[in-house]
Amino acid sequence: MKIDVVTIFPGQIDAFTSEGLFRRAVQEGNEIFAHDLRKWTRDSYQTIDDRPFGGGPGMVMKVEPIHDAVQELKKKNTEVVLTSPRGTLLTSDLAKKLSRKDHLIFICGHYEGVDERVREHIADIDISIGGYVLSGGELPALVIIDALLRHIPGVVGNPESLKEESHEKGITAEYPHYTRPVEFNGWKVPEVLLSGDHRAVQEWRTRMSKP
Ligand code: SAH
After folding, report:
1. Are strands 103-107 and 125-128 parallel, antiparallel or unpaired?
2. Does residue 52's CB lie within 6 angstroms of at least one atom of ligand 1?
3. Is 132 in the pocket of ligand 1 (CB under 6 A)?
């Protein structure tokens, strides 16, 4: 899979691709690139924002540079994702769907957001990562990418660990985990986990998973 992220802060994306899951994804043959939106500006000031029609505070990101970036980066099977607090809420199912695409382009907004014509005419889908407003689309893009990379075979080390993952089983929170030592500061690991009784462990885990 190839992922292009269009942003005014490419360094924020690069910081993630150099370590951990993202790096592993790249080692497995996936491509994740950050592109500086200013590359597609049309004036010597490299203007990417302007005042909102109708007045009001703040600035709005202009449609032209985003349009030109997507035109240049787009291929035949590209899905263009706009990050937006008003978009479709990200779920495990949506992440899985995105993981099956050949090519994704993410558009990261800032300020008051992006000219609505990007959503209307350029993006294929707009996605929110939750009911709150962040200052930019970089973290949302990274959250969506993390959630979808986990569904690409070979990216998560142990496929069993992905299968055990709570959202795969239709529950919202996984059971609690413990590791050594058995006792720390007088805080003990639940007895059942040490029992070696697999059925009892399974029952406990099911019980402890939040519906
Ligand atoms: N005034 C806008 C908010 C813009 S926030 C409004 O009320 O809709 C600036 C940018 O941050 C957005 O364009 C989007 O790219 C990103 N962003 C902020 N919160 C987000 C969220 N919950 N999910 C996805 N993207 C978000």
Report:
1. unpaired
2. no
3. yes
The finding on whether 57 has its CB within 6 A of some atom of ligand 1 is no
How far does residue 13's CA lie from ligand 1's centre (Å)?
Answer: 17
Domain 167-209 CATH assignment equals 1.10.1270.20: yes
* Minimum-distance ligand 1 atom for the alpha carbon of 113: 13
The predicted pLDDT at position 164 comes to 61
Flag whether pLDDT at 169 surpasses 80.
no
What are the domain boundaries of the chain?
2-149, 167-209
pLDDT at 163: 64
> From the CB of 140, is ligand 1 less than 6 Å away?
yes
CA distance 95 to 93: 5
What's the DSSP call for residue 175? P
φ, ψ for residue 190 (rounded to 5)? -55, 135
**CATH class for the domain made up of 2-149:** alpha beta
Condensed to tens digits (0 to 9), the pLDDT of residues 14-28 reads: 999 999 999 999 999
Residue of 57 and 157 predicted with greater confidence: 57
Whether residue 165 has pLDDT greater than 70:
no
Q: For residue 43, how far is its CA from the centre of ligand 1 (angstroms)? A: 26
List, in order, residues 6 or more apart from 21 with CB less than 8 Å away: 146, 149, 150, 155, 156
Pull the structure tokens for residue 97.
């769907």
Whole-model pTM: value is 0.92
CA-atom Rg of the chain in angstroms = 21
